[in-house]
Amino acid sequence: MFGFGEGPGKQSRTVLDFGPPRPVFGDETAPAAPDESLQGVAKVEAWAGYEIVLERFNNRRAAYAAAMRTYREWHGAHPTIPLKLSMPVVDAKEAVERDPQRISLSRS
Question: pTM, whole model, 2 decimals?
Answer without folding.
Answer: 0.69
